[in-house]
Amino acid sequence: MVDVYVVSAFSKNNTGGNKAGLVFDRPDLTSVQKMAIAKELGYAETAFITESKLADFRLEYFTPTEEVPLCGHATIATFTFLNLTNKLSKSDYTIETKSGILSMKVGTDGMVFMEQNVPTYSNILTSDSFNACLDTNSIDSKIPIQIISTGLRDILLPVRSSKALQKLKPNFKAMAALSKEQNVVGVHAFSLEESESKITAICRNFAPLYDIDEESATGTSNCALACYLFKYVEKKSQYTFEQGYNLNSPSRIVVNLTTHDNVIDGVFVGGYGYLVENKSVSV
Fold first, then answer.
1. Angstrom distance (rounded) from CA 97 to CA 59
2. What is the CATH number of domain 120-266?
3. Is the pLDDT of residue 164 over 80?
4. Domain spanning 2-116+272-281: which superfamily?
5. Per-residue pLDDT tens for 11-22?
């Protein structure tokens, strides 16, 4: 049997968020077993945390179908749990991942921030590439559709309004095909909020190529979005995103950017979380 802790990360007012499975100190598990555990749990990602020779912790991330190099919400969930169970003795940590060594920061208020890679801006897509995926009339043509990565490649898709975003009905088979063709994890659709709002944008994230039709909170894609907005919309040091409304799991994701001469040199994603349950699964 394997002990699993279920923690929701990027919660809003201690509800909602995105659940991840956490398994600690089981270096004996094979990749096949880890994937089987992730599949049985059924969450978008499950993190496996072990000792590291290179950092404070080693984290591996599995979806129900394969291993991925990085997962924002599962990492935030991990440090939320370690903080809640008084397993942390300092505020700054490092983690070893397949995306490299990344730094973590835990605030006195329990908010956890995770370093991402600096952005890589890739190709710009036309709205026609979405013809088979969704109603292209909903796309905001004033700003580009672009692939950006701060650890995972996502297509950033601007949508005209939060109402149009809410009404999106993607063809997931076509979107999976587009994701495969563009070598991305998925599509991060967003609508900008009014400038006086404390929320920068409302988002929906689709990753059907990885058997995740929609996800309620995604750290890496919102980091990519912050870098996109820094380049095309407004240069700020902090962006706040909300996601998960269509899944009845409202989530809040905060992204901080550090810059030098208008160039991004640091990307950090942060949020709160809470313990949902612990359970045992067989392998």
1. 6
2. 3.10.310.10
3. yes
4. Diaminopimelate Epimerase; Chain A, domain 1 (3.10.310.10)
5. 999 999 999 999
